[in-house]
Amino acid sequence: MKTIVIATKNSGKVKEFAHAFAKLGVDVKSLLDYPDIPDIPEDGSTFVENAKIKAKAAADILNVPVLADDSGLTVEALDGAPGVYSARYSGEGATDERNNSKLITELTALGASMNEELSDGTQLLSAAQFRCALALYDPASAEFIVAEGNVDGVIADRPHGDGGFGYDPYFYVPALGCSMAELTKEEKGRISHRGEALRKLIPIVEQLLQDSALEK
Ligand SMILES: O=c1nc[nH]c2c1ncn2[C@H]1C[C@H](O)[C@@H](COP(=O)(O)OP(=O)(O)OP(=O)(O)O)O1
Ligand SMILES: [Mg+2]
Questions:
Q1: Which transformation does this protein catalyse, written as a reaction (predicted)?
Q2: How far apart are CA 78 and CA 84, in angstroms?
Q3: How far, in Å, from the CA of 190 to the mean position of ligand 1?
Q4: 166: CA distance to ligand 1 center in Å?
Q5: To test the ligand 1 pocket, which listed residue (6, 10, 188) has its Cβ within 8 A of the most ligand atoms?
Q6: Which of 152, 189, 210, 213 has the fewest C-beta atoms under 10 angstroms from its C-beta?
Q7: Which residues neighbour ligand 2 (ion) by CB within 5 Å?
Q8: What is the pLDDT of residue 16?
């Protein structure tokens, strides 16, 4: 079995990558499998910079090629916030629940509205995007390969669905008439920022695996 290491501690991301790579017969390991690797500071100013930082830090320790994902939510009515700060939006000890609660509180305080409501009374507050940067770093060549993806949506004032992770329950996708958390992993992968970025990178990951750099 071939294995790819993903430099993430986010179990929601791990599940999505595991689902996507399983179709290619590739097993996924994450930093949750390597608890001795110290926390990697995400101090870049863009998603791409942070993805590169995470991939290189883990690859230099493990000495195998590593893939990393830096992603987040940009909200129009918040001038693009929380952006690269999405995971830390609600401060020290942030959780998905507290981040979502801060998001809705801020938008409500601003009076943000798209003057549109769903049949259940849900108010649509602002246009938004999920963005994802993936970086693959190969310590053998010291080279990065980067791919990006994004998906448009709208922030709803209340959650729908219990799939996915992070901001998914509040991220309504008008084209599908449901939130990101109401999609299966397969459906989410087809439209998501992560799915788009991953489709660009998969041929390169497969080539690396062909070269058996990752054979375990
Ligand atoms: O598909 C998504 N559905 C919902 N929310 C999402 C998604 N993709 C990113 N997000 C949110 C979660 C987190 O608040 C931030 C990512 O922050 P980001 O630093 O990339 O990930 P993280 O700290 O959770 O894990 P790690 O750095 O170990 O990969 O954006
Ligand atoms: Mg992070």
A1: XTP + H2O = XMP + diphosphate + H(+); ITP + H2O = IMP + diphosphate + H(+); dITP + H2O = dIMP + diphosphate + H(+)
A2: 13
A3: 18
A4: 7
A5: 10
A6: 210
A7: 87
A8: 98
Q: Is residue 215 part of a domain?
A: no
Measuring CA to CA, how many Å separate 80 from each of 69, 113, 120, 205?
Answer: 19, 16, 28, 31
Provide mean pLDDT across the span 149-157. Answer: 98
**Domain assignment of residue 157, yes or no:** yes
The CATH number of the domain holding residue 156 is 3.90.950.10
User: How far, in Å, CA of 199 to CA of 4, rounded?
Assistant: 15
Q: Is residue 98 part of a domain?
A: yes
Ligand 1: which of 19, 28, 40, 73 to mutate, judged by most atoms within 8 Å of the beta carbon?
73
Residue 121 phi, psi (nearest 5): 90, -5
Q: Is the pTM value of this prediction over 0.90?
A: yes
How many domains is the chain built from?
A: 1
ipTM value, please give it.
Answer: 0.99
